[in-house]
Amino acid sequence: MAIYQSTYFLDILFDMKNTTFSNKSKRNLLLVILLSIVTFNQSFIQANSKLTMSDDINKNRTNSVSILVEEFNSISSDMVSIATYPFSHPNEMLSFAGIMAGAIAIDIPATEFVQNTINPLFRDDVPDLKLFPHLAPTDEYILLGLGGLYASSLVFGNDHGQVTAIKATKAIIYSYFYSHMVLKTAFARNRPDPSLSTNEVEEGYTRNPLDFFNFHPIYYVPTTAGTAFPSFHFTMAFSVGRVISNMYDNPWLGYSIVSAAVLPHFEGHNHWFSDMLAGALIGTLIADIVTDDVNGLKSISTTANVFNRDFEFSVLNPAMPFGLTVKTAL
Predict the structure, then answer these.
(1) Residue 212: which H helix or E strand, with range?
(2) Fewest CB within 10 angstroms: 41, 102, 221, 313, which?
(3) Which of 176, 167, 160, 274 is nearest to 228 (CA)?
(4) From the CB of residue 8, how many other CB atoms can be counted at a distance below 10 Å?
Protein backbone atom coordinates (compact mmCIF):
# COMPACT_ATOMS: atom_id res chain seq x y z
CA MET A 1 0.00 0.00 0.00
CA ALA A 2 2.83 2.36 0.86
CA ILE A 3 4.43 1.73 -2.53
CA TYR A 4 1.20 2.70 -4.30
CA GLN A 5 0.85 5.87 -2.22
CA SER A 6 4.47 6.78 -2.87
CA THR A 7 3.82 7.11 -6.61
CA TYR A 8 2.18 10.45 -5.77
CA PHE A 9 5.57 11.65 -4.58
CA LEU A 10 7.09 10.57 -7.89
CA ASP A 11 4.37 12.45 -9.77
CA ILE A 12 5.47 15.63 -8.04
CA LEU A 13 9.22 14.96 -8.27
CA PHE A 14 9.37 14.00 -11.93
CA ASP A 15 6.13 15.59 -13.18
CA MET A 16 4.95 12.19 -14.34
CA LYS A 17 1.31 13.25 -14.54
CA ASN A 18 2.03 14.47 -18.06
CA THR A 19 3.62 11.20 -19.13
CA THR A 20 2.34 7.75 -20.01
CA PHE A 21 4.22 5.94 -17.24
CA SER A 22 2.12 3.37 -15.48
CA ASN A 23 1.86 3.04 -11.72
CA LYS A 24 3.92 -0.12 -12.06
CA SER A 25 6.69 1.85 -13.79
CA LYS A 26 6.61 4.46 -11.01
CA ARG A 27 6.79 1.74 -8.37
CA ASN A 28 9.78 0.19 -10.12
CA LEU A 29 11.52 3.56 -10.11
CA LEU A 30 10.70 4.00 -6.44
CA LEU A 31 12.14 0.59 -5.64
CA VAL A 32 15.34 1.46 -7.52
CA ILE A 33 15.63 4.73 -5.57
CA LEU A 34 14.99 2.98 -2.26
CA LEU A 35 17.53 0.30 -3.12
CA SER A 36 20.12 2.97 -3.90
CA ILE A 37 19.40 4.77 -0.61
CA VAL A 38 19.66 1.57 1.43
CA THR A 39 22.80 0.46 -0.41
CA PHE A 40 24.66 3.73 -0.02
CA ASN A 41 23.49 4.15 3.57
CA GLN A 42 24.89 0.71 4.33
CA SER A 43 28.13 1.73 2.66
CA PHE A 44 28.44 4.74 4.98
CA ILE A 45 27.91 2.50 8.00
CA GLN A 46 30.58 0.08 6.85
CA ALA A 47 32.97 2.85 5.91
CA ASN A 48 32.98 4.05 9.51
CA SER A 49 33.10 0.66 11.17
CA LYS A 50 35.44 -2.28 10.93
CA LEU A 51 36.95 -1.70 7.51
CA THR A 52 40.63 -0.94 7.90
CA MET A 53 40.94 -0.02 4.23
CA SER A 54 39.19 3.27 5.04
CA ASP A 55 41.96 4.14 7.48
CA ASP A 56 44.58 3.38 4.83
CA ILE A 57 42.84 5.63 2.32
CA ASN A 58 42.28 8.50 4.74
CA LYS A 59 45.89 8.36 5.92
CA ASN A 60 47.21 9.51 2.53
CA ARG A 61 44.26 11.53 1.26
CA THR A 62 43.56 14.39 3.57
CA ASN A 63 41.12 16.34 1.45
CA SER A 64 38.89 16.15 -1.56
CA VAL A 65 41.32 17.88 -3.89
CA SER A 66 44.08 15.38 -3.21
CA ILE A 67 41.61 12.55 -3.82
CA LEU A 68 40.64 13.99 -7.20
CA VAL A 69 44.28 14.57 -8.17
CA GLU A 70 45.36 11.09 -7.15
CA GLU A 71 42.51 9.38 -8.96
CA PHE A 72 43.06 11.53 -12.05
CA ASN A 73 46.76 10.70 -12.09
CA SER A 74 46.00 6.99 -11.99
CA ILE A 75 43.95 7.05 -15.19
CA SER A 76 46.90 6.42 -17.49
CA SER A 77 48.17 3.46 -15.46
CA ASP A 78 44.64 2.02 -15.27
CA MET A 79 44.18 2.21 -19.02
CA VAL A 80 47.59 0.69 -19.70
CA SER A 81 46.86 -2.15 -17.28
CA ILE A 82 43.53 -2.88 -18.98
CA ALA A 83 44.96 -2.65 -22.50
CA THR A 84 47.96 -4.87 -21.76
CA TYR A 85 46.06 -7.44 -19.69
CA PRO A 86 45.70 -9.92 -22.60
CA PHE A 87 49.49 -9.88 -23.08
CA SER A 88 50.49 -9.89 -19.42
CA HIS A 89 48.05 -12.67 -18.50
CA PRO A 90 48.10 -15.14 -21.45
CA ASN A 91 46.82 -18.09 -19.42
CA GLU A 92 43.84 -16.13 -18.16
CA MET A 93 43.08 -15.00 -21.72
CA LEU A 94 43.16 -18.61 -22.90
CA SER A 95 40.62 -19.38 -20.18
CA PHE A 96 38.50 -16.43 -21.32
CA ALA A 97 38.71 -17.61 -24.95
CA GLY A 98 37.60 -21.08 -23.91
CA ILE A 99 34.68 -19.69 -21.91
CA MET A 100 33.62 -17.55 -24.87
CA ALA A 101 33.92 -20.45 -27.32
CA GLY A 102 31.66 -22.55 -25.12
CA ALA A 103 29.17 -19.71 -24.71
CA ILE A 104 29.05 -19.04 -28.45
CA ALA A 105 28.50 -22.76 -29.08
CA ILE A 106 25.27 -22.62 -27.06
CA ASP A 107 24.33 -19.09 -28.05
CA ILE A 108 21.19 -19.96 -30.01
CA PRO A 109 19.40 -22.05 -27.33
CA ALA A 110 20.73 -19.87 -24.50
CA THR A 111 19.63 -16.64 -26.19
CA GLU A 112 16.25 -18.14 -27.06
CA PHE A 113 15.83 -19.00 -23.39
CA VAL A 114 16.64 -15.42 -22.44
CA GLN A 115 14.21 -14.05 -25.02
CA ASN A 116 11.35 -16.40 -24.22
CA THR A 117 11.73 -16.89 -20.46
CA ILE A 118 13.77 -14.05 -18.92
CA ASN A 119 12.69 -11.07 -21.03
CA PRO A 120 8.94 -11.42 -20.32
CA LEU A 121 9.66 -11.01 -16.62
CA PHE A 122 11.07 -7.51 -17.16
CA ARG A 123 8.98 -5.92 -19.89
CA ASP A 124 7.72 -3.01 -17.85
CA ASP A 125 9.45 0.13 -19.12
CA VAL A 126 11.64 2.01 -16.68
CA PRO A 127 10.82 5.75 -16.66
CA ASP A 128 13.36 7.69 -18.70
CA LEU A 129 14.51 10.82 -16.91
CA LYS A 130 16.12 12.03 -20.18
CA LEU A 131 19.00 13.67 -18.35
CA PHE A 132 21.75 12.06 -20.45
CA PRO A 133 21.23 11.58 -24.22
CA HIS A 134 21.75 8.07 -25.61
CA LEU A 135 21.81 6.42 -22.17
CA ALA A 136 19.35 3.78 -21.04
CA PRO A 137 17.17 4.86 -18.09
CA THR A 138 18.90 2.49 -15.68
CA ASP A 139 22.27 3.93 -16.71
CA GLU A 140 20.99 7.36 -15.70
CA TYR A 141 20.06 6.04 -12.26
CA ILE A 142 23.57 4.61 -11.81
CA LEU A 143 25.14 7.98 -12.63
CA LEU A 144 22.69 9.82 -10.37
CA GLY A 145 23.40 7.37 -7.56
CA LEU A 146 27.16 7.84 -7.91
CA GLY A 147 26.67 11.60 -8.05
CA GLY A 148 24.62 11.42 -4.87
CA LEU A 149 27.24 9.24 -3.18
CA TYR A 150 30.02 11.67 -4.09
CA ALA A 151 28.04 14.79 -3.09
CA SER A 152 26.93 13.39 0.25
CA SER A 153 30.42 12.06 0.98
CA LEU A 154 31.83 15.48 0.15
CA VAL A 155 29.41 17.20 2.52
CA PHE A 156 30.05 14.78 5.41
CA GLY A 157 33.80 14.45 4.84
CA ASN A 158 33.63 10.77 3.96
CA ASP A 159 36.83 10.20 1.97
CA HIS A 160 36.02 6.54 1.38
CA GLY A 161 32.69 7.41 -0.26
CA GLN A 162 34.37 10.00 -2.48
CA VAL A 163 37.00 7.52 -3.63
CA THR A 164 34.34 4.89 -4.29
CA ALA A 165 32.22 7.24 -6.41
CA ILE A 166 35.23 8.42 -8.43
CA LYS A 167 36.53 4.91 -9.01
CA ALA A 168 33.08 3.71 -10.10
CA THR A 169 32.82 6.65 -12.50
CA LYS A 170 36.24 5.84 -13.90
CA ALA A 171 35.08 2.24 -14.39
CA ILE A 172 32.12 3.52 -16.43
CA ILE A 173 34.45 5.58 -18.63
CA TYR A 174 36.82 2.65 -19.15
CA SER A 175 33.85 0.39 -19.94
CA TYR A 176 32.63 2.81 -22.58
CA PHE A 177 36.07 3.16 -24.15
CA TYR A 178 37.13 -0.48 -24.20
CA SER A 179 33.79 -2.23 -24.54
CA HIS A 180 31.78 0.17 -26.68
CA MET A 181 34.44 1.88 -28.77
CA VAL A 182 37.29 -0.63 -29.06
CA LEU A 183 35.87 -4.15 -28.77
CA LYS A 184 32.53 -3.56 -30.49
CA THR A 185 34.39 -1.99 -33.42
CA ALA A 186 36.99 -4.77 -33.55
CA PHE A 187 34.57 -7.72 -33.39
CA ALA A 188 31.68 -6.00 -35.24
CA ARG A 189 29.23 -8.75 -34.37
CA ASN A 190 25.61 -8.42 -35.42
CA ARG A 191 22.91 -8.60 -32.78
CA PRO A 192 20.51 -11.56 -32.59
CA ASP A 193 17.06 -11.29 -34.05
CA PRO A 194 14.70 -10.27 -31.21
CA SER A 195 12.64 -13.43 -31.88
CA LEU A 196 15.01 -16.29 -32.58
CA SER A 197 12.26 -18.84 -32.03
CA THR A 198 10.50 -17.63 -35.21
CA ASN A 199 11.66 -17.99 -38.80
CA GLU A 200 11.60 -14.30 -39.63
CA VAL A 201 14.66 -12.07 -39.33
CA GLU A 202 14.26 -8.37 -38.76
CA GLU A 203 16.41 -6.03 -40.82
CA GLY A 204 19.76 -5.28 -39.21
CA TYR A 205 19.75 -8.46 -37.09
CA THR A 206 20.96 -12.02 -37.60
CA ARG A 207 20.22 -15.60 -36.60
CA ASN A 208 23.87 -16.63 -36.99
CA PRO A 209 25.92 -16.40 -33.76
CA LEU A 210 29.11 -16.43 -35.88
CA ASP A 211 28.16 -13.25 -37.71
CA PHE A 212 31.29 -11.31 -36.70
CA PHE A 213 33.53 -8.79 -38.46
CA ASN A 214 30.91 -6.64 -40.15
CA PHE A 215 33.38 -3.80 -39.95
CA HIS A 216 32.21 -0.25 -39.46
CA PRO A 217 33.59 3.05 -38.16
CA ILE A 218 33.57 3.71 -34.44
CA TYR A 219 30.02 4.37 -33.24
CA TYR A 220 29.92 6.83 -30.38
CA VAL A 221 26.20 6.35 -29.74
CA PRO A 222 24.20 3.09 -29.58
CA THR A 223 23.18 1.54 -32.88
CA THR A 224 22.08 -1.91 -34.06
CA ALA A 225 24.41 -3.15 -36.78
CA GLY A 226 27.69 -4.71 -35.76
CA THR A 227 27.58 -3.71 -32.09
CA ALA A 228 26.69 -6.90 -30.23
CA PHE A 229 29.97 -8.08 -28.70
CA PRO A 230 30.49 -7.38 -25.87
CA SER A 231 27.48 -5.88 -24.11
CA PHE A 232 28.45 -2.39 -22.97
CA HIS A 233 25.59 -2.24 -20.44
CA PHE A 234 26.70 -5.47 -18.79
CA THR A 235 30.30 -4.25 -18.81
CA MET A 236 29.29 -0.99 -17.16
CA ALA A 237 26.89 -2.52 -14.63
CA PHE A 238 29.33 -5.19 -13.49
CA SER A 239 32.23 -2.75 -13.35
CA VAL A 240 30.29 -0.38 -11.09
CA GLY A 241 28.92 -3.20 -8.95
CA ARG A 242 32.32 -4.80 -8.58
CA VAL A 243 33.99 -1.49 -7.65
CA ILE A 244 31.49 -0.95 -4.85
CA SER A 245 31.79 -4.57 -3.71
CA ASN A 246 35.58 -4.28 -3.63
CA MET A 247 35.62 -0.92 -1.86
CA TYR A 248 33.27 -2.06 0.90
CA ASP A 249 34.28 -5.71 0.91
CA ASN A 250 30.66 -6.72 0.54
CA PRO A 251 29.34 -8.41 -2.64
CA TRP A 252 25.71 -7.75 -1.69
CA LEU A 253 26.15 -3.99 -2.08
CA GLY A 254 27.59 -4.03 -5.55
CA TYR A 255 25.59 -6.80 -7.08
CA SER A 256 22.33 -5.39 -5.76
CA ILE A 257 23.17 -2.37 -7.89
CA VAL A 258 24.02 -4.64 -10.83
CA SER A 259 20.59 -6.28 -10.53
CA ALA A 260 18.84 -2.91 -10.28
CA ALA A 261 20.74 -1.68 -13.33
CA VAL A 262 20.39 -4.72 -15.57
CA LEU A 263 17.10 -6.44 -14.80
CA PRO A 264 14.49 -3.66 -15.28
CA HIS A 265 15.80 -2.95 -18.81
CA PHE A 266 16.78 -6.54 -19.61
CA GLU A 267 14.73 -6.90 -22.79
CA GLY A 268 16.13 -3.69 -24.22
CA HIS A 269 19.71 -5.02 -24.26
CA ASN A 270 19.05 -7.41 -27.18
CA HIS A 271 22.31 -9.36 -27.07
CA TRP A 272 23.52 -12.88 -27.58
CA PHE A 273 24.05 -14.78 -24.36
CA SER A 274 27.83 -14.71 -24.93
CA ASP A 275 27.76 -10.90 -25.38
CA MET A 276 26.28 -10.50 -21.91
CA LEU A 277 28.69 -13.02 -20.36
CA ALA A 278 31.68 -11.28 -21.95
CA GLY A 279 30.46 -7.90 -20.74
CA ALA A 280 30.09 -9.19 -17.19
CA LEU A 281 33.60 -10.68 -17.17
CA ILE A 282 35.23 -7.63 -18.76
CA GLY A 283 33.42 -5.29 -16.37
CA THR A 284 34.62 -7.35 -13.41
CA LEU A 285 38.19 -7.22 -14.69
CA ILE A 286 38.03 -3.43 -15.18
CA ALA A 287 36.74 -2.94 -11.64
CA ASP A 288 39.43 -5.15 -10.11
CA ILE A 289 42.15 -3.16 -11.88
CA VAL A 290 40.57 0.14 -10.86
CA THR A 291 40.44 -0.88 -7.18
CA ASP A 292 43.73 -2.77 -7.06
CA ASP A 293 45.45 0.13 -5.25
CA VAL A 294 42.94 -0.29 -2.40
CA ASN A 295 42.55 -4.04 -2.13
CA GLY A 296 45.83 -5.28 -3.52
CA LEU A 297 46.09 -8.81 -4.82
CA LYS A 298 44.07 -11.36 -2.94
CA SER A 299 42.93 -14.87 -3.68
CA ILE A 300 39.80 -16.79 -2.92
CA SER A 301 40.29 -20.51 -2.46
CA THR A 302 38.17 -23.55 -1.78
CA THR A 303 38.93 -27.25 -1.66
CA ALA A 304 36.98 -30.30 -2.67
CA ASN A 305 37.60 -34.01 -2.35
CA VAL A 306 36.75 -35.98 -5.49
CA PHE A 307 37.49 -39.72 -5.71
CA ASN A 308 39.80 -39.48 -2.69
CA ARG A 309 41.84 -36.74 -4.29
CA ASP A 310 41.95 -33.16 -2.95
CA PHE A 311 41.35 -30.35 -5.44
CA GLU A 312 42.05 -26.74 -4.56
CA PHE A 313 40.32 -24.08 -6.64
CA SER A 314 41.76 -20.60 -6.30
CA VAL A 315 40.89 -17.32 -7.97
CA LEU A 316 43.33 -14.43 -8.07
CA ASN A 317 42.22 -10.81 -8.06
CA PRO A 318 42.49 -8.91 -10.47
CA ALA A 319 42.64 -11.98 -12.72
CA MET A 320 39.38 -13.07 -11.12
CA PRO A 321 37.20 -13.21 -14.28
CA PHE A 322 39.56 -15.57 -16.10
CA GLY A 323 42.21 -16.72 -13.64
CA LEU A 324 40.79 -19.95 -12.30
CA THR A 325 43.58 -22.31 -11.30
CA VAL A 326 43.25 -25.87 -10.13
CA LYS A 327 45.76 -27.65 -7.89
CA THR A 328 45.65 -31.31 -7.04
CA ALA A 329 47.20 -33.15 -4.11
CA LEU A 330 48.36 -36.60 -5.18
Answers:
(1) none
(2) 221
(3) 274
(4) 12
